[in-house]
Write a structure and sequence with these properties.
The complex is a heterodimer of chains A (493) and B (230).
Chain A (H helix, E strand, L loop, with lengths): L10 H29 L12 H4 L1 H33 L7 H26 L13 H23 L8 H20 L2 E3 H4 L9 E3 L3 H36 L6 H15 L14 H13 L1 H14 L5 H5 L1 H24 L1 H7 L3 H31 L6 H34 L11 H6 L2 H30 L18
Helix pairs in contact in A: 1-3, 1-18, 3-4, 3-8, 3-15, 4-5, 5-6, 6-8, 6-9, 8-13, 8-15, 9-11, 10-13, 11-13, 13-15, 13-16, 15-16, 15-18, 16-18
Chain B lengths: L1 H6 L1 H19 L4 H4 L11 H12 L14 H7 L34 H9 L1 H4 L18 H15 L6 E3 L5 E3 L6 H17 L4 H8 L5 H11 L2
Antiparallel strand pairs in B: 1-2
The chains are: A mainly alpha (493), B mainly alpha (230).
Chain lengths: 493, 230
């Protein structure tokens, strides 16, 4: 391609970048509040008795999970899609007025959904299913957003110049299809207002599935919302940004094929590991357990492919904080995808289920892998979309170490808390009676809850550094020429 | 084949979809008819209990409390008989939870009373020293939404044939019937009668006064729900 480079249009990518930063801070701030509430319950009353209903742990918890999953992460996915999509398909958004309109509509409706979600969760309007809390009017809006994104993906693919789809595109397509299927089936619900002929709240609905079936569908969804929200699209990012930033070719095409199709086939089976020793049939629990262990192969396939991409270029890890973020992300990916299968082994699950060890696992995955990769992607994109160098390299390094320390404090304290509590729940004394009352097993966790809250706070501090660095990059950093934007991103001191 | 797929986005998308949909077909569908059969003694919820269940969901109680007793001695010692699939036949949604920051509540109706819940919801740490559960004092003031609970009863009865007004076999050989009111007013009257029984065991004068005046505070409904968890 020696002809004049395309002028890519990053308008919508910029909007989603902004949303990523803002919703990331919101989601993590709420998370930090929750962490302090668990260590010091008085924090539940931080805004006084009158507002306790809206500041207490139980109302804020879904706000934390949903704003990190559907706010921060989804915005990050879409910010990168509206950047990567154009570049690997060799087509500019500016070439199609229709696609440009769709992309803007995508952002606009998404923002409406965000506001509706925050409001309804604070008011306690919820279907009661984790990560599927939204009532039917919001579900419909979500489906609209998703369909628009699908049209955007396939529209851009339809007018592409590069005929062969790059690996990242495979993963974006899979994200779109996977979430579409899961979300639709798990949110099948009947609005009671219409079914009863106009009685009660208009927004209330009742699940199409009951009891054990509902649990099965929910965790088939819940686990795979993780798969197709926290894994698949993040892998899409690393396959694009790591080779681009480092100037290295992806280590192995065959390994990427194996990892992709392996992940697609295996991931959906593993949902059953959330239901071990529950009332779903034993064979499903065993399938969930076995496939979780098999899942190590495709997960590590991608992670190793990324690490080997750096072969012979490891000095870049020391030299560039951006590479550091991505290498740590893929290391945490390996770590988290080993930890998960261990927890899915039946005898381990008997101990770990319902404890903080699971919470720790989620957070080493999301803070260490997902958030690090999204922030690295945004750092790489910033000089290219704003035509300015990254404001401060030293600030990036500071952020990196503060947040790494934060994650380490988080998961180590949650490991200890989870295993301690699990062991205490099952302990019997010499006469065969339970050795501890439930509250004993809560009181013992106080120091670990405190350490976790400190870890989370450190991570949040890092988020503020990130936001500041991005803001300065947007507004007052040195302007750069196209020639400086080949591989390693330009950074100020 | 893979090279070909990478140049044909439509077929690529179809291939991906089939690959990911496969597991759901094999793992989820076969169980559907079987798991939804109730066990003997499982009753649908009354209007007041269902309103209480909505408040339980509204305040995300399942964020910290499970409703799933696993088949281990340590759990059956602590919480009672392990859970059976059919016990959840009328639970829409299921409320198993995924985290036990507090204890399991599957059978809390067997070992806690109205009086205990009243004190505990007002000030958890006063009842259980060291508790990190927040207080839920607004439940003593907000009114329960009986209308929506009744709307849900009609819906599940109509759409899923949930057996209201039907004799249900109980474990002791007797039969029980859960009534579905014919009109909203009847449903409200029935719920208020149930609420009076609970308010009689409570101390809070404001709650007693409200129930006497024909209102149902959230706390009464949520206690009705917790008491029926057995």
């Amino acid at each position: 391609m020696e002809n004049r480079p395309l002028e890519y249009d990053y308008t919508v990518a910029k909007w989603f970048m902004l949303a990523t930063v803002v919703l990331g801070i919101v989601g993590m701030l709420v998370g930090v509040i929750l962490a302090w509430q668990m260590a010091f319950p008085g924090v539940n009353l931080m805004a006084g008795e009158g507002l306790a209903e809206y500041t207490n742990f139980s109302r804020l918890r879904p706000l934390h999970t949903d704003s990190v999953i559907f706010g921060f992460t989804l915005s990050g996915i879409w910010a990168t899609w509206y950047y990567v999509g154009q570049r690997v398909l060799k087509v500019s958004m500016a070439e199609s007025k229709f696609l440009m309109f769709l992309a803007k509509l995508h952002f606009a409706i998404y923002m409406v959904v965000v506001v509706a979600v925050v409001g309804s969760l604070l008011l306690g309007i919820s279907t009661g299913k984790e990560y599927a809390d939204f009532e039917w009017p919001i579900d419909i809006a979500v489906v609209v957003v998703w369909v628009i994104w699908g049209m955007s993906i396939f529209g851009l693919i339809g007018i592409r110049r590069e005929k062969s789809l790059y690996i990242s595109i495979w993963y974006y397509i899979a994200t779109f299809l996977g979430i579409a299927m899961l979300y639709l089936f798990n949110n099948m619900e009947i609005p009671t207002y219409f079914a009863s002929g106009g009685i009660g709240n208009w927004y209330h609905s009742v699940s199409m599935y009951s009891g054990t079936n509902d649990a099965l569908v929910q965790w088939w969804y819940g686990h795979n919302a993780v798969a197709f929200g926290f894994t698949v699209p993040i892998v899409a990012m690393i396959y694009y940004f790591l080779p681009k930033e480092s100037g290295q070719a992806v280590y192995s095409y065959k390994l990427s094929l194996l990892a992709f199709w392996g992940l697609m086939f295996v991931y959906l089976w593993a949902g059953g590991h959330h239901l071990i020793y529950s009332t779903v049939p034993d064979w499903m629990q065993t399938m969930g357990s076995v496939f979780s262990v098999v899942l190590i192969l495709p997960s590590w396939g991608s992670a190793i492919n990324m690490l080997l991409t750096m072969k012979g270029e490891w000095q870049q890890v020391a030299a560039s904080p951006l590479i550091k973020f991505m290498i740590l992300a893929s290391t945490f990916y390996m770590f988290s995808t080993l930890e998960g299968p261990i927890q899915a082994i039946k005898s381990v699950n008997a101990l770990a289920h319902f404890t903080d060890w699971i919470v720790g696992h989620v957070h080493d995955g999301v803070l260490g892998w997902v958030a690090f990769m999204i922030m690295a992607a945004l750092f790489h994109m910033a000089p290219r979309v704003f035509k300015r160098e990254i404001y401060s390299k030293s600030l990036m390094n500071t952020q990196f170490w503060i947040q790494t320390l934060g994650v380490v404090l988080y998961f180590t304290s949650m490991w200890i808390a989870g295993i301690t509590q699990g062991m205490m729940w099952r302990a019997h004394d010499e006469f065969g009676n339970l050795a501890y009352s439930f509250i004993d097993t809560v009181a013992v966790l106080h120091p670990y809850f405190t350490i976790r809250a400190v870890g989370g706070t450190l991570y949040l501090v890092g988020m503020f550094l990130f936001a500041y660095n991005m803001y300065k990059t947007m507004t007052s950093s040195r302007r750069v020429e196209e020639s400086e934007l080949q591989n390693a991103s330009p950074m100020g001191a | 084949m893979f090279h070909w797929l990478e140049k044909h986005p439509f077929f690529f998308a179809v291939a991906v979809f089939l690959t990911i949909a496969f597991a759901g077909l094999i793992e989820i569908l076969p169980n559907f008819a079987q798991a939804s059969q109730p066990v003997v003694g499982t009753k649908p919820y009354s209007t007041l209990e269902l309103a209480g269940r909505h408040i339980y969901i509204k305040n995300n109680c399942m964020g910290c409390h499970s409703q799933l007793v696993r088949p281990f001695k340590s759990e059956t010692d602590r919480y009672g008989h392990y859970s059976l699939s059919g016990e959840y036949a009328y639970d829409r949604p299921f409320l198993w939870g995924s985290k036990r920051t507090g204890p399991d509540l599957m059978r809390v109706g067997n070992y806690r009373t109205t009086d205990w819940h009243e004190n505990h919801m007002k000030d958890p740490a006063a009842v259980v020293p060291g508790s990190i559960m927040p207080a839920y004092r607004w439940m003593f003031k907000n009114a329960a939404d009986i209308d929506t609970a009744y709307a849900e009863q009609i819906t599940v009865n109509k759409v899923f044939k949930t057996p209201y007004n039907t004799e249900i076999p109980m474990a002791d050989g007797t039969k029980a019937t859960v009534a579905l009111a014919a009109t909203l007013d009847e449903a409200k009257t029935a719920a208020l009668e149930e609420a009076k029984v609970i308010a009689a065991d409570m101390k809070d004068q404001d709650v007693k006064d409200a129930v006497a005046a024909g209102q149902i505070p959230e706390i009464v409904a949520v206690i009705a729900y917790l008491n029926c968890l057995k």
